[in-house]
Fold this sequence. Notes:
The chain is α/β, with parallel strands linked by helices. The chain has helices at residues 40-56, 74-84, 109-122, 147-163, 174-186, 205-214, 228-240, 271-282, 287-302, and strands at 2-4, 7-9, 17-21, 24-25, 61-64, 87-89, 91-92, 133-137, 140-141, 144-145, 167-170, 194-197, 217-220, 247-249, 256-257.
Amino acid sequence: MIQTVLGEISKDELGIVIPHEHILVGFIEDGKMTRDDYDRGEVIRIMLPYLMQLAAAGCRTLTECTPEFFGRAPYLLAELSELSGLHIITNTGYYQKPYLAPFVYETSSEDLARIWIKEALEGIESSGIKPGFIKIALSNTNGGISPVQQTILKAALLTSRETGLPIQAHTIGGETVMHALEFLARDNFEPSRFIWVHADSEPDLTYHKKAALAGMWIEIDSIGYRPFEEHYAMLEKLIGMGLLNRLLISQDAGWYCVGEKNGGNIKPFTTILEGFVPFLREKGIAQSIIEQLMIANPANALENRKDRL
Ligand SMILES: [Zn+2]
């Protein structure tokens, strides 16, 4: 089962998935952004064509990774899902300093988890719209995870255990992901419920190998920000290490940026389907591998396994 903004769907209905994208982001600090900071009608007018273009390219599901206090917008996403016909998945969880409300710094993991579990069970605020995953960030200080992000990580583990939702964790660098693995091990938490977001930020693939062999998902999610050749080389090496069944690809594209005229400079969501996939085919990558990266793997990563336990 997968929870979308319009309700539950089965794993087989996901189709082609881009697991890490943004429709709306607001770089407003300390949890101060409200829905009055942007015009929902304008966001829809500007973002809908990008989503229609994505649907026309064959994608079925977009996972929207903007957390609360950073522009999470459940009503907007539900409306865009209806209008575009795409499945859209939103999240619970919190991002990182300075995009946290002041109370987060003074709240325990248990109490943060209580807020997120409530959203997973009852919906976000009074919308009835439920999250399909947990989005957090593990900002680091000298390779280690900073204290407030440790609290957030522990809250994510508690929430995942209780709800079955997978975790997408913004994690820059291999040392930070190794630190996260220690937390998972201490908690006896299943690493296959954890997605290493921005894994392509780390060039040393020994970290990816360790994380993937432990069971983590390795998300190569800035496709389009660098020459295709670089991402292809990284994927080819990881596949060569036998890690195909741990890999996810996405673009971290979009988004309507709150406060900028017409949402600023928006990156389309079709770079992978219209550019990178043809590039992979030219390199001789088999269709079955492309389908595993874009259909089977994200379905396995995002599936809520609670109902199977
Ligand atoms: Zn992102």
